[in-house]
Amino acid sequence: MKFAQLFILILAFLVIRPASAGLLIEPVAGFSFGKFEVDDTGYSSVDMSGTSYGGRLGYQNLGFQLGLDYLKSSQSVDDSDYSSLEMSEWAGFVGFEFPVLLRVYAGYIFSATADGKYDAGLGKKDLELSSGSGTKFGIGFTGLPFVDINFEYRAGTFGELNYAGSESTVDTTYSSYMIGISLPFVL
Asked: Is the pTM higher than 0.85?
């Protein structure tokens, strides 16, 4: 009986680590799908889907997380007038990793841009969306070693539209879901 107790005690010391704070580095990759709408263009919404990649850099202590988040998406657009969109987002995030299998996080997107081409009867011309902001919410399954499976929702608005050299302040809204994996490292 004493051997079993000693074995369990040694195993506990090797497996259980004291809580510590550290640098959070987390590469992210996934598949996004959603829609966007440009006001005053006659479209109710345009569907988009594609790959996304990026990462998080921050601080983690006792499960709490705080830091910056970057995401770049290459979106195919389900409309013959558009070509694909290249979207880029910077966000600040906060999160909490529960001791068992689950992590939640939320963020404020403070900078978002998108580039693509649009055909308004003039041939495909450059389309640029800028001055974007919005929010993001996510939940992650942390049960696999070194890998998190995440489901994320993002929504925002672009404030400026530049089409073929002509700028306007038309509100363009977007919303997107992402299913992805991440590799969180706490150093």
From this structure: no
